[in-house]
């Protein structure tokens, strides 16, 4: 092999080299990050403290909010600091941890969304058996398996990626460490481990997608049999947002982790990366919970208990 210079760190290009624009992006993403953090922490607080929200659906929503908080907290704070300090460097260890955590939380979210689709299937198609099937033990088991498989996949994926040396350019044309960029600067001639990890990840994602599609085929066929339009509307309002969120998340994750390596990603690639990292943590609270009447009433009860009855009129 010819002499090569091994990479000891990476440079994240971000969105712009102009300092004024970097400050603008830093402030913008700081506001987005705070919005995502506060909305998800609010959901976690409500679903933990309010006794009327101690149901399987809100248990899974609380776990989803935890995953969203962790997922958005991995790349965005680093991106904010890089823009405000005009320093885009990241160490190999920092890049490895970023990849480990992002893949773990992303995989965990996919499995948790699959568990949520099963929860909706049992609630709508088998309502008389719902409390028996979706008991506390089953819910905890499903959530624990989602977290565990996500962590396992992230560990294997990251170990495969960083088991090979990097040489040549140290520039990663993204605002976080992504696998396609790391593969592009890899010195290794055999990438069997990482490609095997990608294959396993693709199979698991497709399996989850198939499970969700099958669940919703049964759900929609049951909903269409409901005699009242109001009942159909209520059922669709709880299921369609879940299907939309999962579809957007899985498509953007595919482009982030499975697209071929590129020396200069297009605007679309960077937009999809932003959607993948920022949109789920920001949109999930709005889609799932903050527009939900139960959540609104729980928020009012929390304000009343905290500030007194006058909080109702705020």
UniProtKB/TrEMBL annotation:
Family: Belongs to the G-protein coupled receptor 1 family.
Gene Ontology CC terms: plasma membrane
Domain of life: Eukaryota
PROSITE patterns: G_PROTEIN_RECEP_F1_1 (PS00237), G_PROTEIN_RECEP_F1_2 (PS50262)
Organism of provenance: Macaca mulatta
One Pfam family here: 7tm_4
Name of this chain's protein: Olfactory receptor
Major subcellular site: membrane
Key word Transmembrane helix present: yes
Role: Odorant receptor.
Protein keywords: Cell membrane, G-protein coupled receptor, Membrane, Olfaction, Receptor, Sensory transduction, Transducer, Transmembrane, Transmembrane helix
TM annotation in the entry: 26-46, 58-77, 89-112, 132-156, 192-219, 240-258, 270-290
Gene3D superfamilies per UniProt: Rhodopsin 7-helix transmembrane proteins (1.20.1070.10)
Locations listed in the record: Cell membrane
GO molecular function, one term: olfactory receptor activity
G-protein coupled receptors family 1 profile domain span: 39-288
Bilayer topology annotation: Multi-pass membrane protein
